[in-house]
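EI: anyone free to look at a 248-residue chain?
SC: sure, send it
EI:
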Amino acid sequence: MSDTDDLRKALERLTQAGGTGNRLVVRGGRAWFVFHGAKGGVEIRSEAAAKHYLGKDFPLSLNDVGLIRKAGFAQAPPSKTLQRVDAADQGVAIAARTRELFASAYKHQGPIQLELSLGDKEATQNPDLLEAIRTAAGKRSPQARNALYRALLRSTLLLRVDSQGLPQAVGKLQSWDVFAAFSSLDALRLYSPTVDRFKTMPGRLLFSALLDLRVGSLLIDPGGRLGGELYRNEIETIAGATRRTGSF
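SC: here you go
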């Protein structure tokens, strides 16, 4: 059986099994597509990797992007991927189109890898936190900053983790690690559409636990319209406002 047949069968499962948050990541070298569906749903949404996610050294030219757009993909802000929606019964056509675009636009001729995740969508939302971030960005006063700290402690955040379930650094601040936390699954997927590994933690536990690590800063919703960065001294301040009750 070819990997195109495997892809078709995986696409069919997006609307035949699992729950509300089914997704399929298909990788060909560094390039990828992500497909979304729900059990009983009538649509499959496709996302094609944009250069923003592939890196400056990836050979994706304007002509290559034009090939993806000619295949019916378009940008749907705030996402930075190119997207299109197909009927759920179009698995054969979706699979064929995906293989053709891997070859023509992304210059990948080899085998592909499939990562199928079936289940309900993670439902964490933090509207009060987002409002506090917006206010702090506009007013830049000690009162607004303190209100932001309180909102962070009351929030439930999604923290990127590695295969062992431990926090995964996303960068460096001099010799210290930088971590990333997100207010919702949508915010996490905006930052990295292919990521599936994360841990949901209440803020009152997260900030104390971060101090067990060589944390230099914590990014909140990086890549989004709202967000920011908390440095170690701020993390210590937030952690000091609550009793230490847990760690990773």
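EI: The mean pLDDT is 93.
SC: 👍
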